[in-house]
């Protein structure tokens, strides 16, 4: 076999690309995993993971230089000192904002699987049937039963801890033992159950942190430093989980610094032959050939690759014959909710830093509830005692202040909504051929915003949070809307959606590009609607399912 | 020592002599800079301000955590130019307030006087902060107090002596008994 010929090519090494590489190699396919950024080796390259807070020159805070260098990252919490190397160099890789769009990217082996929030929830038929029932966008070409076994499959390998709660709109999975709620959260959960008579639930977050040793990984050590990379392998990342499995097969070649510029499309066979790669270090161009290509470059970059491919056949690129490539960009809108004070727990505290919170599954527009907007939202949050950063105005300065701040403060609890955004055709990305990145490649122009449906929902996200916290007995409950711009949820989805008709979708029910059936897209680009659940677990399940399909089709010589 | 090393040592001494002469001149005029904005005297001053805000009690105070040095780094690297100017001017304003009230500079005050002076400034900043427009800059003493608290409680001394710190807890207990006086967890 020539050194540029493989059975399979995977573009991107984040959550879904790592899964594609694992599944393909375990099924015996010689696979090359192409990653545009540098390599990050498990444990060895987690350079800040064992540092103490005082080891950082600015104790984690952002400098003026960082603010200047990261005009997008600075808009929210990701810009700080402790894991800056895991975020994209924005000067090298700009993009165009026709409207404000926050795009937080991780260009390295492992992608954002290193820094993700790890909340892992299944979609249900409430989500898969939503577009059909509401008569918007297009219908998902799959239902929960199609994905359920694959959810189980990926949960068992990734290691998702959580409780089985029997909530239809948030199906239970194959979980490791759940993390524990603290005493305030336990009481709030019980009071909500009593007050809402079982219509609303508060559960412990289902999270990709393992609570038992698993595949040479140590269980979570409750350090809450996941996004520095975990030296214990306590959470799911490409590095801790899928990459070692793929490597163990002997079938994987990992090539960092490989920017895939296009899928090489053969118009005679109507199949992809491989991909073209620009070496990010040498600027040399290479071609790699394979029978099947998986695009897992992250939602918007996967669409960027498609738009740059087969332009001799379709001006808009591979998949553009649908008329929807680049359209229906979605995210989860959040940063609206409420918080309050829990009294009566002064003799209680916690030990350990739990990297997880509580979750309140969607209850709006469910079970006969009807609002003046479509879909709904879930809440994430938690309770804890205040730390030294609290204000004690009456103590001013001096020894009493220091001693008071050396003790924990009152218990507070906050919840913030994560709401579904609808797929709007006019929320779109296009190629901006006038602006080039460091490598002379055209960049994406993003033109998207939230609309009335989301804005109405945000009012409920605040009001319902207040009502529930007050029903649970909390005092001084305040609502907030800290403002939100599309992309800020770091859950960008859509732009190459699955569907039932090649005239209105880019991908079929197995994530194959209608116009090139040996090209599979299984990252967030494939999403037909957004749900309100954190989406990564769905990408994992879609990927494992699609690889199973691809290998079957290869055997049947259909692709 | 071989010949090459001996020669280079001489060269170093010669160079050192030049530096020493330079320092000698410097000592008579300006104290050594710690960075572009602060010198050692200002760091010592900020350590005393910090110690007055968070003094040694049964646990060490802010000076033991060298919050003055951290303030110099944070103001230089993390503050905007506008906030840097307010902060630096604040150092002289404290001395001016001290001269007005006690007829001498802050560093010459005894601990009781320092506490009285900074307590008044803290009341001034609280009033100012409550009344200012949201986009208006913070009061300089607000900045000093914030950096003192931040610098102290994130320092090794603050995190391990005033607070409790466990790098790797290894487990989670969501309902641990607590009694008044038990220290808070750092981070």
Automatic annotation (TrEMBL), chain A:
Residues 423-542 form the Glucose-methanol-choline oxidoreductase C-terminal domain. InterPro entries: FAD/NAD-bd_sf, GMC_OxRdtase_N, GMC_OxRtase_C, P2Ox-like. GO terms for molecular function: flavin adenine dinucleotide binding; oxidoreductase activity, acting on CH-OH group of donors. Residues 97-332 form the Glucose-methanol-choline oxidoreductase N-terminal domain. It comes from the Bacteria. The keyword NAD does not apply. Its cofactor is FAD. The keyword Lyase does not apply. Keywords: FAD, Flavoprotein, Oxidoreductase. Belongs to the GMC oxidoreductase family. This is GMC family oxidoreductase.
TrEMBL record, chain B:
It comes from the Bacteria. This is Gluconate 2-dehydrogenase subunit 3 family protein. The lineage of its organism: Bacteria, Pseudomonadati, Bacteroidota, Cytophagia, Cytophagales. InterPro entries: Gluconate_2DH_su3. It holds the Pfam family Gluconate_2-dh3.
């Amino acid at each position: 076999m020539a050194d540029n010929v493989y059975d399979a090519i995977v573009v991107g090494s984040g959550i879904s690309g790592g899964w594609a590489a694992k599944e393909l190699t375990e099924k015996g396919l010689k696979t090359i995993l192409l990653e545009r950024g540098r390599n990050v080796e498990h444990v060895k390259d987690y350079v800040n993971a064992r540092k103490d807070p005082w080891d950082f020159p600015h104790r984690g805070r952002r400098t003026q230089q960082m603010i200047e260098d990261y005009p997008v990252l600075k808009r929210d919490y990701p810009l700080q000192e402790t894991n800056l190397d895991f975020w994209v160099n924005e000067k090298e890789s700009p993009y165009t904002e026709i409207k404000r769009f926050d795009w937080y990217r991780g260009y390295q082996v492992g992608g954002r699987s290193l820094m993700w929030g790890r909340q892992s929830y299944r979609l249900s038929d409430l989500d898969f049937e939503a577009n059909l029932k509401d008569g918007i966008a297009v219908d998902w070409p799959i239902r929960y039963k199609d994905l359920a076994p694959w959810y189980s499959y990926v949960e068992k390998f990734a290691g998702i801890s959580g409780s089985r709660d029997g909530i239809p709109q948030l199906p239970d999975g194959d979980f490791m033992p759940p993390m524990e709620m603290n005493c305030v959260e336990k009481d709030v959960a019980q009071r909500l159950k009593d007050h809402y008579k079982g219509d609303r639930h508060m559960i412990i977050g289902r999270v990709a942190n393992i609570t038992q040793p698993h595949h040479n990984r140590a269980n979570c050590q409750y350090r809450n430093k996941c996004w520095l990379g975990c030296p214990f392998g306590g959470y799911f990342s490409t590095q801790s989980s899928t990459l070692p499995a793929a490597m163990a097969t002997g079938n994987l070649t990992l090539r960092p610094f490989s920017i895939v510029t296009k899928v090489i499309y053969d118009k005679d066979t109507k199949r992809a032959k491989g991909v073209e790669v620009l070496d990010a270090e040498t600027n040399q161009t290479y071609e790699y050939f394979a029978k099947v290509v998986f695009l897992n470059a992250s939602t918007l970059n996967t669409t960027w690759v498609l738009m740059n491919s087969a332009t001799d056949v379709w001006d808009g690129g591979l998949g553009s014959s649908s008329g929807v490539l680049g359209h229906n960009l979605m995210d989860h809108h959040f940063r609206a909710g409420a918080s309050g004070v829990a009294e009566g727990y002064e003799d209680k505290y916690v030990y350990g830093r739990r990297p997880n919170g509580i979750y309140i599954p969607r209850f709006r527009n469910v079970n006969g509830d009807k609002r003046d907007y479509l879909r709904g939202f879930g809440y994430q949050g938690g309770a804890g005692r205040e730390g030294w950063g609290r204000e004690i105005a009456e103590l001013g300065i001096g020894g009493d202040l220091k001693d008071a701040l050396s003790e924990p403060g009152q218990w507070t609890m906050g919840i913030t909504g994560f709401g579904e955004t609808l797929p709007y055709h006019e929320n779109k990305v296009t190629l901006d051929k006038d602006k080039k990145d460091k490598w002379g490649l055209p960049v994406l122009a993003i033109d998207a915003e939230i609309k009335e449906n989301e804005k109405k929902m945000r009012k409920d996200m605040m009001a319902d949070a207040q009502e529930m916290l007050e029903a649970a007995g909390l005092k001084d409950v305040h609502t907030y809307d800290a403002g939100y711009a599309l992309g800020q949820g770091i859950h960008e989805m859509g732009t190459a959606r699955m569907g039932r008709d090649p005239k209105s979708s880019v991908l079929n029910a197995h994530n194959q590009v209608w116009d090139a059936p040996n090209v599979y897209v299984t990252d967030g680009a494939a999403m037909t609607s957004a749900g309100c659940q954190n989406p990564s677990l769905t990408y994992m399940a879609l990927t494992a399912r699609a690889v199973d399909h691809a290998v079957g089709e290869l055997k049947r010589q259909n692709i | 020592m071989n010949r090459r090393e001996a020669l280079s040592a001489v060269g170093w001494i010669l160079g050192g002599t030049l530096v020493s002469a330079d320092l000698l001149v410097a000592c008579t005029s300006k104290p050594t800079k710690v960075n572009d904005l602060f010198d050692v005297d200002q760091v010592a001053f900020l350590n005393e301000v910090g110690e007055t805000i968070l003094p040694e009690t049964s646990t060490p105070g802010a000076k033991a955590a060298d919050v003055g040095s951290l303030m110099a780094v944070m103001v230089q690297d993390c503050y905007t130019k506008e906030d840097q100017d307010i902060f630096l001017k604040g150092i002289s304003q404290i001395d001016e307030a001290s001269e007005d009230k006690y007829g001498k500079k802050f560093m010459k005050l005894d601990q009781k006087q320092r506490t009285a002076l900074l307590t008044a400034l803290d009341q001034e900043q609280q009033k100012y902060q409550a009344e200012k427009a949201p986009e208006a800059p913070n009061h300089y003493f607000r900045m000093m107090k914030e950096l003192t608290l931040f610098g102290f409680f994130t320092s090794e001394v603050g995190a391990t002596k005033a607070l409790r710190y466990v790098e790797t807890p290894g487990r989670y207990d969501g309902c641990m008994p607590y009694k008044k006086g038990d220290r808070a967890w750092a981070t």
